[in-house]
Amino acid sequence: xxxxxxxxxxxxxxxxxSKIVYEDDTALAFEDINPKAPVHLLVIPxxxxxxxxxxxxxxxxxxxxxxxxxxxxxxxxxxxxSGYRIIINxxxxxxxxxxxxxxxxxxxxKFSWPPG
Length: 116
Ligand code: AMP
Ligand code: ZN
Known about the structure:
Layout: H1 7-12, E1 20-23, E2 27-31, E3 39-45, H2 60-76, E4 84-87, H3 91-94, E5 103-107
Antiparallel strand pairs: 1-2, 2-3, 3-5, 4-5
The protein binds adenosine monophosphate and zinc ion.
């Protein structure tokens, strides 16, 4: 998947509409189109990184920023105390469908463990 045809790169460039809830120079957060919980947002880097296993030392600051962004959104959506999940699916067995790194921020209901 090259970045020209990457769905989330195109969302970041506003070529494809999305419900953006947060944006800065390096990160974007938007509503998942098929929500699995009352709060279900995706937090992505604007940089095209394909999967979490591709993260290199140069990306550590960026990845920390993505987690921090998810935490801030959890606070603003009032799920910080009740709880939330940050999920990163990597490759086929985990069910990664979009080949651009994304953190799922899920909350607003109780989740079971272990995940299915
Ligand atoms: P994953 O299975 O971890 O790759 O998650 C991909 C997520 O992207 C799924 O939860 C989809 O519902 C979501 N998704 C796919 N297309 C869009 C889109 N155009 N806008 C927002 N979310 C999307
Ligand atoms: Zn991309």
